[in-house]
Design goal:
single chain, alpha+beta, Zincin-like, 2 helices, 4 strands, 37% helix, globular, binds zinc ion
């Protein structure tokens, strides 16, 4: 598991759970409940895939907050690219000072 148990977005705290079954009777690897602020991630995936799915669910939250009408396919592509950028720039938000 990637060890992230909470994410704050739009002033709300979303809990993150790593589970064996995301949604009974449906084959899902991740899900966000925008009413209860719960994110469920399938725990039997590679760490990088869990990260990608978590960002995918975060994109759903962003779309809800911004009232963007993004398709599931577009949400998927956006999550993948966001994950790639995040992984390729791990220090993006950790710099104390910007270089001159
Ligand atoms: Zn989705």
């Amino acid at each position: 598991m990637i060890g992230i148990s909470k994410i704050k977005a739009g002033g709300h705290v979303y809990s993150v759970e790593y589970v064996d079954v995301v949604e009974p009777f449906m084959q899902r690897i991740g899900q966000v409940n925008l009413l209860t602020h719960e994110i469920r991630i399938h725990k039997d995936m590679a760490i990088s895939k869990q990260e990608e799915v978590l960002l995918h669910e975060l994109v759903h939250i962003i779309c809800d907050l911004c009232k963007f009408d993004m398709s599931e396919e577009d949400t998927g592509r956006f999550g993948v690219v966001l994950h790639q950028i995040w992984k390729d720039n791990p220090d993006l938000f950790s710099r104390e000072e910007l270089p001159e």
